[in-house]
Amino acid sequence: MQEQRYTLKKDEKLRHKRLVDDLFANGKTLYEFPLRLTWRVIDAEELAGSFRSDIPAKVGRIQMLVTVPKKKRRRAVDRVLMRRRIREAYRLNRVPLKDIAENIDNAGTLSLAFIYMSDKNLPYSLIEARMKRLLFKLEKELQPDNRQTPTP
Q: Partners of 35 in the beta sheet?
């Protein structure tokens, strides 16, 4: 049996401006204080249309970004600390979500944006508990029986 690796690779980081803009313009939102999750499933055809030429090699099935607004945490040290805690909580708890994302029909990528909403630095244990709840809610939304199919 091969050991599970929990590294967060470059193809799992959402960094293309076009994809980020589409996520915030057309994404759905889930909320679990102090985190807000904006997510969107982009089908393969739409993903290909988002780029001038073909899809870059480093676009994975799941892509995520973390943002901590300057308005909430004024000091850069605090923003970096909370970003690291959120990223770590996601990295350790994303495995069930990856399995579901692999089985979504005609999906190009699942884009996720985690936004920190509190004006205080919260402990990692709380961040991880809320991350688990958010990912569980997202998994329920992505289940094939919950997703709506367009009617002709």
A: 32, 116
